[in-house]
């Protein structure tokens, strides 16, 4: 079985940035989370402008999101059609945090011929803010900076705690808290920053779907910590909506995934509002909607449980050959919205920031303008 592999470059704050130089010594187009919007995808552009010969280095800012997740196999790759929208159980519009790799790039590359496309089609969209480094002394303040920013504008931030021990099964994104006791304490501090406004929590990508590498005892311990995390987050802020890891439609069978999710507390309204899928992946929204509903049906729990889907890079579906590292021919998916028009689907989110490389078109976890432009102009 091919598993997910989330590449993380931890820069030490909230949401990603680092300008870099390539092997030849030239300034690269790499740089350094995002904003609010409604839903249809933009039309393709006719031509790709030439990259600018130089790039200005941006300042280091918050920790970037995981950058690569392997697809499990081919799925339908048909472009998606926009569906009728409706208001879901999550109110309000999504929040774009002002610190991000893409915004760093946009601010420092006004003369780049790709600037307008990247600025309008990626930088202006709301995206999740990842907390991928284990730094208990600062995490409360960093989370509070995001949630208070959203509350001030009456918008809904999306935050991603990503510090579970043994994450990525020791792969590219290995790291996190040194043990589950430390993780539990870190979650307490994370929860203390949630405030009292609406917030969406995408709890630990890969933590359930990628649990095969753990022993039965280790898996039970992890799931107990995840269930506790959900309870702590929702107790700290009753308006927080907490979603648990369902992998994606090309990975575990719905029954298997639901059984693990149940052990992790995802069926309990005290811990969970439902599930998320397709984080950093490419499977079509239609495939994810169908898969998530099957998982929810198998999971049981109250009818209020629902799902959110990462649509940041799934406009053309997953590659037929299963390629996961910055595969060619991908495009942006549906823009982030909390009005999906789909039963039991609370939102389409950009959990993975489009343009952050999986490690093939740029350094892992860095925003790479050439990759972003390809996604935005396809």
Question: Which labels suit this protein?
Answer:
378 residues, alpha/beta, 7-stranded parallel sheet, two-stranded parallel ribbon, 8 helices, 26% helix
Could you explain how this protein is built, in words?
The protein has about 375 residues and is an alpha/beta fold. The protein is about 25% helix and about 10% strand. It has eight helices and nine strands. Strands 2-4-5-6-7-8-9 form a seven-stranded parallel beta sheet, covered by helices on one side. It is globular and about 55 Å long.
Class from helix and strand fractions: alpha/beta
Q: How large a portion of the residues is in β-strands, by DSSP E? A: 5-15%
Helix content: 25-40%
Please give the oligomerization state of what you see.
single chain
What is the H-and-E element order? EHHEHEEHEHEHEHEEH
**How much is the average pLDDT?**
82
From the N-terminal CA to the C-terminal CA, the straight-line distance is 30 Å
Strand order of the largest sheet: 2-4-5-6-7-8-9
Q: What gross morphology would you assign?
A: globular
Count of extended strands: 9
Q: Count of helices?
A: 8
pLDDT < 50 runs, ≥5 residues: 1-6, 8-48, 50-65, 67-89
Radius of gyration: 19 Å
**Largest beta-sheet details:** 7 strands, parallel
């Amino acid at each position: 079985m091919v598993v997910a592999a989330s590449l993380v470059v931890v820069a030490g704050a909230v949401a990603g940035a680092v300008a870099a130089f390539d092997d030849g010594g030239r300034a690269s187009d790499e740089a350094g989370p995002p904003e609010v919007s409604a839903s249809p995808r933009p039309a393709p552009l006719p031509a790709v402008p030439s990259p600018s010969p130089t790039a200005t280095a941006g300042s280091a800012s918050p920790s970037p999101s995981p950058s690569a997740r392997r697809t499990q196999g081919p799925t339908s790759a048909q472009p998606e059609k926009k569906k009728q929208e409706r208001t879901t159980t999550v109110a309000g519009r999504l929040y774009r945090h002002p610190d991000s790799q893409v915004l760093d790039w946009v601010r420092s590359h006004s003369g780049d011929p790709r600037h307008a496309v990247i600025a309008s089609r990626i930088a202006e969209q709301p995206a999740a803010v990842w907390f991928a480094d284990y730094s208990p002394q600062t995490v409360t303040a960093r989370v509070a900076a995001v949630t208070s920013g959203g509350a001030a504008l009456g918008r809904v931030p999306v935050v991603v705690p990503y510090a579970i021990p043994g994450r990525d099964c020791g792969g590219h994104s290995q790291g996190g808290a040194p043990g589950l006791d430390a993780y539990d304490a870190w979650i307490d501090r994370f929860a203390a920053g949630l405030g009292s406004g609406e917030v969406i929590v995408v709890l630990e990508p890969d933590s359930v779907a990628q649990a095969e590498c753990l022993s039965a005892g280790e898996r039970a311990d992890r799931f107990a910590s995840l269930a506790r995390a959900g309870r702590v987050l929702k107790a700290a802020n009753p308006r927080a909506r907490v979603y648990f890891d369902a992998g994606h439609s090309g990975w575990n069978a719905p029954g298997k995934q639901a059984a693990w999710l149940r052990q992790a507390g995802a069926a309990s309204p005290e811990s969970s509002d439902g599930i998320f899928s397709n984080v950093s992946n490419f499977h079509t929204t239609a495939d994810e909607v169908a898969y998530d509903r099957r998982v929810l049906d198998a999971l049981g729990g109250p009818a209020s449980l629902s799902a959110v889907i990462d649509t940041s890079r799934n406009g053309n579906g997953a590659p037929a050959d299963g390629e996961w590292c910055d595969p060619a021919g991908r495009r942006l998916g549906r823009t982030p919205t909390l009005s999906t028009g789909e039963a039991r689907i609370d939102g389409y989110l950009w959990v993975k920031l489009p343009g952050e490389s999986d490690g093939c078109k740029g350094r892992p976890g860095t925003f790479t303008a050439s990759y972003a432009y390809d996604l935005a102009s396809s």
